[in-house]
Specification:
CATH superfamily of the largest domain in chain A: Cytidine Deaminase, domain 2
Oligomer: heterodimer
Subcellular location (chain A): Cytoplasm
Subunit structure (chain A): Component of the eukaryotic translation initiation factor 3 (eIF-3) complex, which is composed of 13 subunits: EIF3A, EIF3B, EIF3C, EIF3D, EIF3E, EIF3F, EIF3G, EIF3H, EIF3I, EIF3J, EIF3K, EIF3L and EIF3M.
Largest sheet of chain A: 6 strands, mixed
CATH topology of the largest domain in chain A: Cytidine Deaminase, domain 2
Helix content of chain A: 40-55%
Keywords (chain A): Cytoplasm, Initiation factor, Protein biosynthesis
Largest sheet of chain B: 3 strands, antiparallel
Strand order of the largest sheet of chain B: 3-5-4
CATH class of the largest domain in chain A: Alpha Beta
Shape of chain A: elongated
Radius of gyration of chain B: 43 Å
Structural class of chain A: alpha+beta
Pfam families (chain A): eIF3h_C, JAB
Helix content of chain B: over 70%
Strand order of the largest sheet of chain A: 4-3-5-6-7-8
Protein name (chain A): Eukaryotic translation initiation factor 3 subunit H
Number of domains of chain A: 2
Order of helices and strands of chain A: EEHEEHEHEHEHHEEHHHH
Largest interface: A-B, 19 and 16 residues
Distance between the termini of chain B: 108 Å
Radius of gyration of chain A: 27 Å
Number of helices of chain A: 10
Amino acid sequence: MNFSAPFLGLCWKTRLQVVLKIIKHYQEEGQGNEVVQGVLLGLVVDDRLEITNCFPFPQHTEDDADFDEVQYQMEMMRSLRHVNIDHLHVGWYQSTYYGSFVTRALLDSQFSYQHAIEESVVLIYDPIKTAQGSLSLKAYRLTPKLMEVCKEKDFSPEALKKANIAYENMFEEVPIVIKNSYLINVMLWELEKKSAVADRHELLSLASSNHLGKSLQLLMDRVDEMSQDIVKYNTYLRNVSKQQQQKHQYQQRRQQENIQRQSRGEPPLPEEDINKLFKPPQPPPRMESLLIAGQINTYCQNIKEFNAQNLGKLFMAQALQDYNN
Amino acid sequence: MSRFFTTGSDSESESSASGDETAPKAAGGPYSKPLLLSEDEEDTKRVVRSARDKRYEELTNLIRSIRNAMKIRDVSRCLEEFELLGRAWAKAKGVVDREGVPRFYLRILADLEDYLNELWEDKEGKKKMNKNNAKALSSLRQKLRKYNRDYEGQIAAYRQNPEQSDEDEEKSRRDSEGSGSSSGAEDDAGNFLKRRERDEPRSRYKESESEPESESDEDWGDSASESDSESDEDDGKFTSLASKFLKKDEERRGAERRREEKAKKKLERKSRREEEEEEEEGGEWEKVKGGVPLIKEKPKMFAKGTEITVGLVMKKLNEILQARGKKGTDRAAQIELLQHLVAVAHEHQLGVPLELKIKFNIVASLYDYNPNLAAYMKAELWQRCLGCIEELLELLFAHPEIFVGENVLEESENLSNPEQPFRVRGCVLTLVERMDEEFTKIMQNTDPHSQEYVEHLKDEARVCGIIGRLQRYLQAKGSPEELCRVYLLRVLHTYYKFDYAAARRRQVRPRPQEKEDEEKEKQEEEEEEEDSEALMERLCRFVYAKDRTDRIRTCAILCHIYHHALHSRWYRARDLMLMSHLQDNIQHADPPVQILYNRTMVQLGICAFRQGLIKDAHNALLDIQSSGRAKELLGQGLLLRSLQERNAEQEKVEKRRQVPFHMHVNLELLECVYLVAAMLLEIPYMAAHEFDARRRMISKQFHHQLRVGERQPLLGPPESMREHVVAASKAMKTGDWRRCHRFVVNEKMNGKVWDLFPEADQVRAMLVRKIQEESLRTYLFTYSSVYDSISMETLAAMFELDLPTVHGIISKMIINEELMASLDQPTATVMMHRTEPTATQNLALQLAEKLGNLVENNERVLDQRQGAYGGYFRDQKDGGYRKGDGYLRRGGFRQERGNY
């Protein structure tokens, strides 16, 4: 009954109970593109992290601004310990809307988790995909490279370049294994036998335009943002090169002057701090565009996946129709 | 103006003196005598007195001292005494409340007022007056005026017949007294004298005015004639010839003196008789009263015996006119005076010009009656005003030789000299214009849903009649400018009326009954047998040609357009509007003209709608409707706004601009027409551009209504006009023209909107057809992607249109590239070509475009790295890449889809 996945090459194990709890949480509180979050509890067994329980963060409202989240978590964990449940903090979970989760907020909180508890993980639950018939639950961790960058808090282009960070290697996905106790497995088998033909038509639904449209819309928004980001970066680069030219000109002039002075026997002009004269323009932080790129990647993956499935379905339907005719 | 103190004749002042003497005594009644004898004694003696007596005594005392002061022209003392009087009066209030205001008090108030007015008018005397007195005079005058206001009615009544009041007074005194004491008799004598004196001129005038043989008036006959036969004779002589007044003045004075003596003798007899006749007398005096008010005024105008000449009347007129506009002038009285002056002038046959002149002034002072512009005339005054103007016009028509003009100088007026042409200063046109304004004001201030409004509206015919007559008059002699003005008046009274008679005449087969009506109407307005269309045409053309002030022409054009539009002559109306270029510069016009412009535009829009020109209708109405302030823009009511935005002054101005109710454009009709027009335009457009990101709205307001409809949590059957239109729009969106039609044309909507049109059935037929056509278009836009081909016959059956129409609509759509299809002639079907991308495809296209941008931006970054070489590279790419590739990609895509 454990969720397992590789931890530093190991495996995470999760219990079904946790999954159901997360789904329930979303269905009760999440609406549309609102996001629900919660805490995962578990323990490290050998080379695996086992997530054995979870509890949700209460929904925030503007009314209780003085609500202390940390206090609440501590209280909760203490209470859980009293009933003898694993109370080790091993990460958190979050729901997502059409796969849009690669954000700065997620990065920051995951970084702080991972910084404090090394084995922390974030579970992303996609309710829409789940509603379409296949459970979508993914576990992510920040790569060690990104951890380092985040620790430095330097998101300038050079730093990122040096760290050799790209959108592909920001997050690493860890495999999840849902494991139940044998008793539960037995019960599930029994239930399956008893229940009539599963009335789950969602999986076979041929309507695709809605989901695809939404995804495309989101993807377009990101592309727009990306475009803007690039324009910004472009301006920066142009500014830098312009300044470089100016600097160069200045130095040349100074050199010529010095040469003239030397010929006249005068002492050369003192070398001034060139950086003081030409302040380099502030480089735009590149983290955002990295994240956007990551997000775009996720969208693309989603769309690809979805389309592959749908095309399959469409071909199947066509074949069926031909057969019937 | 004063009865007692007119400066004109000696006899008058004499009599007034005597009157004054007697007055306090009369008022004082029985107590005045002992009071005169010894005051202290009286105080001790009469311990037991009724409150009434005590108070009255106090008052009479004061009154007497006032009269004394008046006699010696000591105004400051008058003032003091008057103040005391006021206090005493306040004390006596209890008594007064019980018994009513005593006559003597009213008399002193009236007398004092007259006296002060006289002093006030007497500029010479005022100059001579010492400073103290002058100051007291002005303050007393003010105080008195304020004071008298409370007793206005009673004083007026008193002035109407002071005799009677005196008599009453006396009677009551006598009653309380029992039989006449010596003092009472004396008083009576005085009173009697006075009365006689007043009666005298009265009867004289009366006789001269009407029946000379009625010389033996009843009052005379019974009470005085026996004893005073001589005066009777005199009266008889004086009767009709005013000229005699002057000659006989001496004589008369003598007679008066004689009469006084006689009166004394007569007293004994009288007092005896009085007791007997008391009952009868009451009756007698009643009779006198009937004649009084009419004649009573005259002595005010002219002294007795003056020969009434043109000059004199003019002088009087000027005198009256001078008081005009002053603060203390009683405007009602002024009108009365003028009216009597006319009567006098008429009676003495001083010539039409003079009468004209005075009548001009009467109308002017009728207009002056209201102190401020906002107030409107009372109905009674209004009727008088109308009557007066009608008379005036009659006179003018009767005497075309008289020259009337506002540019005639006061000096060059010729009122009496028959050798030269008569010239009278005054402008009928201005008067009539003002009358029209007053009429508008009255209509504005009457509750439009009351019977009263209908009553007032009936006067419109009279107003129109007056304007028509004036027009005829001016056509004969007026200048083009004046003609323009009167034509405009006429136009303003014509343009908003639907000419039912003309419309009926135009009908092919008029029913016999209607024909009769028509004939009757024709008879009624013989002079206006021409259609209002022709009339408008004629008048407006004249104005266009002759007018030199821009405003009149603008108004005339707008009215003309309005009239055309009202009678569904759309093209003429539109052409006129376009040719006049009013749309360009109307914002520089004054608000009333702008309101007229708005009204015209609205009417134009409604006209276009009736003609089935939906787009024109929508364009014409857009400006008015989109602001959401149609009510205000059309001058049909004020919007409720916070006071900060508009202060009281502004509100007044805006109120004055309101259009009278009977000229209103129905706002609901207007909105309905607009919304239906917007629906017919917008729904197909929305269907055609469903996925177009750059889609714009044709009508914001319509969208607003749609949104409001969508927000409704529960959709019941439509109630209001707007709900109907929204429901109809929804039906049309799905191409269901029958439901749409049901929503637009049904019982409710008929009652609310469609029946208001003169040709309602025609409009409804037009609407059905438009709805069918637009529904067909919408249907094709919305569902063309579902079809591979549609039979036009099916479509025709679906929308109940005939085949050629369907064919026409579809062909038009194909030509405009709204519908990607082709017509298959032999089978009469429409073959659809799949070229329009679906929603997802649209999104994909947009994404591709965005990605193109992204790539381009990215390349620029790359260029930075690579320097000049990259720049060259990019330039090349930039040129070819976007256009070529984008185009190719799309083209390729289409082909692919087409094959699929």
